[in-house]
Amino acid sequence: MLFEGLELVSALATLAACLVSVTLLLAVSQQLWQLRWAATRDKSCKLPIPKGSMGFPLIGETGHWLLQIFSKIFSHEALESYLPKIQLVIQDTLRAWSSQPEAINVYQEAQKLTFRMAIRVLLGFSIPEEDLGHLFEVYQQFVENVFSLPVDLPFSGYRRVRERCPWEEGAGKAIREKLQCTQGKDYSDALDILIESSKEHGKEMTMQELKDGTLELIFAAYATTASASTSLIMQLLKHPAVLEKLREELRAQGILHSGGCPCEGSLRLDTLSGLRYLDCVIKEVMRLFTPISGGYRTVLQTFELDGFQIPKGWSVMYSIRDTHDTAPVFKDVNVFDPDRFSQARSEDKDGRFHYLPFGGGVRTCLGKHLAKLFLKVLAVELASTSRFELATRTFPRITLVPFFGLDSNQNKILPETEAMLSATV
Ligand code: HEM
């Protein structure tokens, strides 16, 4: 027992020594890197070299530069070009859900849906459905192992994440095929933008960087959007009055009309931004069921909080959930009430930091507009093409009747098909 205890202490001491050495090494190398650039100053010129960081040794400011390309991927123009594809992916998925006679698990299905969206819309891979299914399984294995102990042993989760072989194979093949097909064409998805922008910056991306980039994009988009989609469906199920109000808005805007659902690719960004109540519904889902509980930061400067000092250098976590739960601006915090975000009440307008489902500051979520767009299209399609209800009381299941037509005279929704879909949330 004593022997084991001593071994543990010595392992911890070694780990701590390694961490300290690596931190010191990084700090020293960054200073030397800074000096190296300062030394390149042309002494015959009196002007100083520009202020600012030279980044980290060798990689310099590549991370920052990549971040700028990330922003371009989520610009207004980019979102407008993704919209018809997002709508198509969602419509196809709802059709598939409705053709299934047995119960489906909404969270699992939402994961597949967001993965498909990321693959087809963000990356533009035109791979067959079977390959997509295989890639999804490979990706899920990767995600399951991401939060494993950093122990590099054969068959350990850590080793699997480091090797990433099956993902590399699948993504590599899809990227090569895509590059061959799209050469000389206008770019239309996030991966195209990534490739084109890097060329514009005089830095062509290597295959490894492209594979890593695709993995990072999907990682950021996948579980968060799947979780929010599930919460959205669940809340629409539990609050029929909200769903009806949403349908009224869609009718008023001419989206839900006598022909039934919106036509493929017919939605536009400005149409969606005009749907005020839909915006309130999405905001309320994100307030009450925030997919990310919080984020980590390093304190750069000592500051005071509630009479205590938080010293420089500490690692701190900001909690999105606690913030939403305790923010004084929200009345009846536990009640699902989209109208709190209506123009008349605007509960989120008092104070900048009470509502932050997508984080805040410089590291705020880059994909927030894309995520909101996706959720809005999902809500529009669900509300206008389907009737759904909880199938059991004990465990939330839904029953969904797809593809309605509207009786233009009576303005009632009539089922065109009896196909039922039960889904488990
Ligand atoms: C409902 C869905 C989503 C939620 C709730 C969400 C939430 C967040 C939050 C809270 C952060 C900040 C974490 C921190 O403070 O450290 C973040 C960062 C980020 N998100 Fe999202 N996200 C969502 C969807 C997406 C999508 C679809 C993408 C696009 C692929 C995306 C890309 C990113 C990126 C790239 C960052 C890192 C930004 C940086 O470090 O500068 N997210 N997200």
TrEMBL record:
It is found in: Endoplasmic reticulum membrane; Microsome membrane. GO terms for biological process: retinoic acid catabolic process; sterol metabolic process. InterPro entries: Cyt_P450 (IPR001128), Cyt_P450_CS (IPR017972), Cyt_P450_E_grp-IV (IPR002403), Cyt_P450_sf (IPR036396). It comes from the Eukaryota. Keywords: Endoplasmic reticulum, Heme, Iron, Lipid metabolism, Membrane, Metal-binding, Microsome, Monooxygenase, Oxidoreductase. It is a peripheral membrane protein. Its cofactor is heme. One of its GO terms (cellular component) is endoplasmic reticulum membrane. This is Cytochrome P450 26B1. One of its GO terms (molecular function) is oxidoreductase activity, acting on paired donors, with incorporation or reduction of molecular oxygen. The keyword DNA-binding does not apply. Belongs to the cytochrome P450 family. It comes from Sciurus vulgaris (Eurasian red squirrel). It catalyses: all-trans-retinoate + reduced [NADPH--hemoprotein reductase] + O2 = all-trans-4-hydroxyretinoate + oxidized [NADPH--hemoprotein reductase] + H2O + H(+); all-trans-retinoate + reduced [NADPH--hemoprotein reductase] + O2 = all-trans-18-hydroxyretinoate + oxidized [NADPH--hemoprotein reductase] + H2O + H(+). Heme binds at C365.
